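#struct-help
A.M.: can someone run this one for me? Single chain, 214 residues.
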Amino acid sequence: MDSKKGGNKRSGRPLLIVISGPSGVGKDAALATMKKAGLPYHYILTTTTRPMREGEKNGVDYRFISENEFEQIVKQNQLLEFAQVYGHYYGVPKREIDVALKKGLDTIVKVDVQGAATIKRIMPEAILIFLMPPSLEELAKRLTQRYSSSSADLDIRLSKAKEEMESLPIFDYIITSYTDNLDLTIKEVNDLIATEKCRNKTKGGETVRESDIF
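D.P.: on it. Structure tokens below:
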């Protein structure tokens, strides 16, 4: 979480916003741009065992830990949800979400489709947003740029993307993600959250308590 740019409190019941979508759709780029723009959200960092990519920083993009460390936090029930994705583990810290919501902060978490479904089951009030590529051809192009050295990996991710798109009915909103126009993607995400905030006000929502969630 970027405390300098993501800690402004909005009125009304705080929201948990779940951003999901297939590999290569631009989730990380969109969230990085939102943080840089200083939008008033608390951003939850995913904990992962995968290696850092070029340009990434521990504690900024993800929390990178070893598999042994990941096993420990699973045993200690510190994660709201976790899964193995493409050979590496990813998990969402439970307490950080609780603390942020109790402070009245609208909170954003990024997970895969499986993780989004798990969070919706645990927290039905969570708002699920799916970032959709303009086309599978465009997604293949993006993935090729990232995984050009492994055609097998590319095929697996494209197949997984098609499978994930079959889960669209569980999502509250679908936004087409144009990597060459991140401002538009971010505006649509922000507008949807603003709409949900207005709905919460009309319902007279109260601040979330830990017992409400866990």
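A.M.: thanks! The helical segments are 27-36, 67-75, 94-102, 113-122, 136-146, 151-164, 182-203, 210-213.
D.P.: also worth noting: Strands lie at 16-20, 42-43, 47-48, 63-64, 79-85, 88-93, 107-110, 127-132, 173-176.
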